[in-house]
Amino acid sequence: MENIKETMLHERHLKLGAKMSPFAGFDMPIEYAGITQEHEAVRHKAGLFDVSHMGEIRIKGPDAMPFVDYLGTNRITGVEFGRVMYTILCTPEGGVIDDLFIYKLDYTEILLVVNASNIAVDYAWLLANKKGFDVEITNESDDWGEIALQGPLSASVLEPILKMNFSDLYFMRFRTIEYDRKKVILSRSGYTGEDGFELYGKTKVIAELWDKILENPNVSPCGLGCRDTLRFEAGLPLYGHEMSREISPLEAGSGFAVKLDKNFIGRDALQAQKDQGLPRTLVGLELIDKGIARGGYEVYKNGVKIGVVTTGYLLPGRDHALALALLTTSEAVMDSIVDIQIRGKNVAAKVRDFAFFHKNYYRKTL
């Protein structure tokens, strides 16, 4: 059996009493005080996540920018430095290999942050498609640590620690800073729908920052359990659920990151899909009757299967369970009633958007 990896914060999680479980090849904290308590902590105060299982791949060389532009659906050439870019790697058929974040460090140097379960796949894909580009590709995932501080109090917690003011650092922007004479990438981003920060650096400095941040009584350590409920409530996709090699980014509602007016792998397939009309559409579902629709549950209309649930939860403070589902586009009619098959029974649900929560990102006001 493959060895389970541990992040540099593993012993700290055990001392904090975390419930641990294998995830993407790592032994990761699922919860500490409980998913509901941690979910609410992020929504009202601040929560700290260990996300060091994520992968970091460096692209270096004269063709770094055109190479990443060709590999991903989003456009990065011409985008100013200091901006975090979201992009998607597609197969030639338009399926999703992974979704990831781009940090343009220089004209010739880019850091890709990829999903933990796809590190090896992404790295192999990059290497397989580098022909004709003058780039050097290095998988640095084992050398990096990453933590995410999320919630409305995040800035007030972090500013005195880093001795910085973040009033001019807006959502999806980053800067390289020094902490204890070590370089750290500070990014105003996250996966919860709240204001917050992600900090990347060598494992030792990230461990130091974890300890320092948790000294603040307004910060709760949080596990991957509430990370999923939070991203779901914010309507953010998860690879393997809302997008996959069988689900295109257009079907997944991520068309904002697909620039069809440039060349990239999978572009022709996605253009054809758009021209012909999307066969499926991602929607939100709000259950009318009691029950929780889990990923994989089938959705019916008048006895005919029209789709499948990708993620579903009864969220803290909610009376009715919610779900994300891929439905046949012709049946994805807002406010229409459908049936979800839950344990052999049909449970009624209303089709709605998946803006379950108003995101609280720190954006520049005009």
Describe the structure.
- The protein is α+β, with helices and mostly antiparallel strands and 366 residues long.
- Among the domains are: 10-54 and 142-233, Gyrase A, domain 2; 279-366, Aminomethyltransferase beta-barrel domains (Elongation Factor Tu (Ef-tu), domain 3).
- 20% of the residues lie in helices and 34% in strands.
- The chain is built from eight helices and 19 strands.
- The chain has helices at residues 10-15, 35-44, 64-71, 119-128, 154-162, 203-213, 224-233, 267-276, and strands at residues 19-23, 26-31, 46-50, 55-60, 84-90, 96-106, 109-114, 136-139, 144-150, 174-179, 182-187, 196-202, 219-222, 280-287, 298-301, 304-313, 322-328, 337-342, 345-352.
- Strands 10-11-12-9-3-13 form a six-stranded mixed β-sheet, with helices on both faces.
- Helix 2 packs across helix 7.
- The protein is globular.
- The model has no long low-confidence stretch (mean pLDDT 97).
Distance between the termini: 55 Å
Fraction of residues in β-strands: 25-35%
The DSSP helix count reads 8
Largest sheet: 6 strands, mixed
CATH class category of the domain at 10-54 and 142-233: Alpha Beta
CATH-scheme architecture of the domain at 10-54 and 142-233: 2-Layer Sandwich
The CATH homologous superfamily of the domain at 10-54 and 142-233 corresponds to Probable tRNA modification gtpase trme, domain 1
Q: Within the largest sheet, what's the order of strands? A: 10-11-12-9-3-13
Structural class: alpha+beta
The count of strands amounts to: 19
Which radius of gyration do the C-alpha atoms yield? Answer: 21 Å
In terms of quaternary structure, the protein is single chain
Shape summary: globular
Average pLDDT, all residues: 97
Helix proportion of residues, in percent?
Answer: 10-25%
Q: Classify the fold: give the CATH topology of the domain at 10-54 and 142-233.
A: Gyrase A, domain 2
Which stretches are low in confidence, meaning pLDDT under 50 for 5 or more residues running? none
